[in-house]
Amino acid sequence: MNLDRYLSNLAAVAEAHGLVPDPGPLADLDLPLVLSGEVQGRQVRLVPLPPAPGPEAWAAVAAAVAERLAQAALTAADGPAAGGATGADGAPGDHRAETVVLACLFPDGATPEETTAVRQLSRSGPGWELVVWAVDLDLELVDRPPGSPPLPEPVLRALTSLPDRKEPRGPDPMFRAGRGPLALLRQWARGDFGPVPVTRLLLATNVALYLWTVLRDPAGGIWGLLGDPGTWLGGLLHGPSAAALVQWGANSTQRVLAAGEQWRLLTAAFLHAGLWHLALNMYALWGLGRHAELIYGSGPTAFIYFLAAVGGSLASVALRSRVISVGASGAIFGLLGALFYAQRALGRRVDWRDLAGPIGASLLWGLLINVDNLGHFGGLAAGALAAWAVGTPGQRRPWRRAVTWTLGLLAALLVAGVLPVPWVPLF
């Protein structure tokens, strides 16, 4: 690995997000790069550490960094008594807590034991916090300790970007000089969505379609908004009527099997029956989607989501004699299945404590409310199958690409009505 090129690429991306070279109290430690700036209201320093013979070498660096941070915090605390020292914000004695992120680089991959040993180097003290991350450059993954401060997503991606293996991404590939619409479409076709995270796009699409179905509801909609805003606001809370949901693509056994409207297998995953239904699903999508996208990447995450959406709707129609269902929960359970597969394939990485809230919201809604749990189980299975097909970054092989295209083609033919929907009702 060419360390100089790697650090140059990282510094270029980080600078676009407010992290600039500034060693501060770590100036005398002879570190290759120290980036400093404010991230979400916290003062953060990012220190990438080059490959070392073992965790012992990084432990020595962590101990030295912790010592400098403790000295700096003590000096700042004693500043007013020694003559009114100026804090980080310019006011005497106003010293802001600082977080230092040590990013230990593993060019050839990190074992679970190495990852655990590195994470145990984190420590904190009055006015400072030291968080140690393991950066697996072989799998292109960042193992962030639970509860550690977040960094901008492009910086996290830059931490796993090897300039020796591929072109440096830069701060914003969408607006790079000379990149026209066709080049951008080719970039997206490769699964490289750059600064357009799929999770945010899916969130925006679900929310927009919910507002659209409420607005176009025959029971009120735009006429209720113009004539009686109170009625329309009530519809916004309680959701569109059943007639509106069926009109705009709800999953219906009769419509899918008798009328051949198999496109409902996909559209139903973007409709919701009420504001609470939408809110809980979007909360779960935000938590699970971001985590899945960090592991699999944007393109594969979109594939997993859409295949799980179709799989959940298919299970709902094929195994029930009569159903009208909507909601993204089948696709969201598919993301959960993908995380289960990643846990098994990688043996680490998935921090379930951070996902307890989103998973609990999905399960609670499924147990307490009259929802289609067959769709949940179908989405879970389809998501795990899609994750196996695309593979984690360390498993990408040509045969997996062929399987992925085959599954995608079968799902597309099913939604288009070319392939029939099997029907073996259990309920």
Task: Walk me through the structure.
- The protein has 427 residues and is α+β, with helices and mostly antiparallel strands.
- It is built from 17 helices and nine strands.
- Strands 1, 2, 3, 4, 5, 6 and 7 form a seven-stranded mixed sheet that branches.
- It is elongated, with a radius of gyration of 25 Å.
- 39% of the residues are buried.
- Mean pLDDT is 77; it is low at 80-95, 166-180 and 223-227.
Task: Specify the CATH homologous superfamily of the largest domain.
Answer: Rhomboid-like
Structural class: alpha+beta
CATH topology group of the largest domain = Rhomboid-like fold
Envelope shape: elongated
- Examine the secondary-structure arrangement and name the CATH architecture of the largest domain: Up-down Bundle
Task: Note the main sheet.
Answer: 7 strands, mixed
Helicity, in percent?
Answer: 40-55%
pLDDT < 50 runs, ≥5 residues? 80-95, 166-180, 223-227
Supply the number of structural domains. 2
N-to-C SSE series? HEEEHEHEEEHHHHHHEHHHHEHHHH
Overall mean pLDDT score?
Answer: 77
Radius of gyration: 25 Å
Quickly count the helices. 17
Terminal-residue CA separation: 58 Å
Output the keywords:
single chain; 427 residues; alpha+beta; Rhomboid-like fold; 2 domains; seven-stranded mixed beta sheet; two-stranded antiparallel sheet; 17 helices; 9 strands
Give the gist of this structure.
The chain is of the alpha+beta class and 427 residues long. The chain has helices at 3-15, 55-77, 112-119, 153-159, 181-189, 198-215, 221-227, 229-238, 242-247, 253-258, 264-267, 275-296, 298-318, 329-346, 356-368, 373-390, 398-416, and strands spanning 20-21, 35-39, 42-49, 98-106, 123-125, 128-136, 141-143, 251-252, 324-325. The longest helix is centred in the N-terminal third of the chain and has 23 residues, at 55-77.
